[in-house]
Write a structure and sequence with these properties.
- It is a single chain.
- This protein is of the alpha+beta class.
- The protein has 2 domains: about 5-140, Jelly Rolls (Sandwich), CATH 2.60.120.10; about 145-225, Winged helix-like DNA-binding domain superfamily/Winged helix DNA-binding domain (Arc Repressor Mutant, subunit A, Orthogonal Bundle).
- Helix content is about 45%, strand content about 25%.
- The protein contains 9 helices and 12 strands.
- A 4-stranded antiparallel β-sheet has the order 1-8-3-6.
- Helix 4 (about 105-115) crosses helix 5 (about 120-140), helix 6 (about 145-160) crosses helix 7 and helix 6 packs across helix 9 (about 215-225).
- The longest helix is centred in the middle third of the chain and has 23 residues, at about 120-140.
- It is globular and about 50 Å long.
- It starts with a helix and ends with a helix.
- The model has no long low-confidence stretch (mean pLDDT about 90).
Length: about 230
């Protein structure tokens, strides 16, 4: 990959200086995973940071024998940075939903990179704050009706990872249980709401290509604001 491509693909590097990006490209490892593969095991967190070049990744937690999806990440995002700073045990793992290409950098080198480039360090803090803000929003939505929570979840995924097509804004066709988990709604409610959105022309699901298109984003925004 070229320096300009790294800067354009990954928002964290928007303000990094060229020397930082050259060094980054010289120390990274490139990794590829087929669908449904464990990328980061529970005991591997804190060893590296992973940047998603292409594909979709889910982060799952394991608690008292139950597995729950807590986050879906797409191209341009990264994972593993918080565990470098927080060494407490983690009961989470990361899996590929689709074919995934990653760039990985060791924990030590990632920290070196942050210390070398104050602008990158500041950008890192900005993105971390954004993630915390999104978490707060999810907590605030806890008491909202399932339709509002699902609509806001779909909008967030579309805004961060969506690709504009003739049909609308396209994202990965996330499995119902995973989508129900991150939207914090029961699976039965999700299936019912998804059927309603499809019948109203707001969603189009392509099972062959495993894509979900938000075909009427304005109407989904309308649903997200109803009380």
């Amino acid at each position: 990959m070229e320096i300009q491509e790294i800067s354009e693909r990954f928002p964290i590097f928007n303000t990094a200086n060229p020397e930082t990006l050259e060094w980054f490209l010289s120390v990274i490892d490139q990794e590829e995973y087929p669908p449904d593969t464990e990328i980061v095991q529970e005991d591997e967190w804190g060893k590296a940071v992973y940047f998603i070049v292409t594909g979709w990744v889910k982060v799952s937690s394991h608690y008292q024998g139950q597995q729950s999806t807590i986050e879906i990440l797409g191209r341009g995002d990264f994972l593993g940075e918080m565990e470098i700073l927080d060494e407490s045990p983690k009961s989470i793992a990361a899996f590929s939903l689709s074919e995934v290409q990653l760039l990985s950098i060791s924990a030590q080198r990632f920290l070196q990179m942050l210390f070398k480039d104050p602008q990158l360090h500041h950008r890192m803090l900005q993105l971390t704050v954004r993630r915390v803000r999104l978490l707060y929003r999810r907590i605030q939505l806890h008491q909202q009706p399932p339709k509002i929570k699902l609509a806001k979840t779909l909008i967030k995924l579309a805004e961060i990872y969506g690709k504009s097509t003739e049909k609308g804004i396209e994202i990965w066709c996330i499995a119902n249980q995973d989508l129900a988990d991150i939207a914090d709604i029961p699976l039965e409610d999700l299936q019912q709401i998804m059927n309603q959105l499809q019948s109203q022309g707001c969603l189009d699901i392509d099972q062959v290509n495993q894509t979900l298109s938000l075909t009427n984003i304005k109407q989904i925004h309308h649903f997200s604001q109803q009380l």
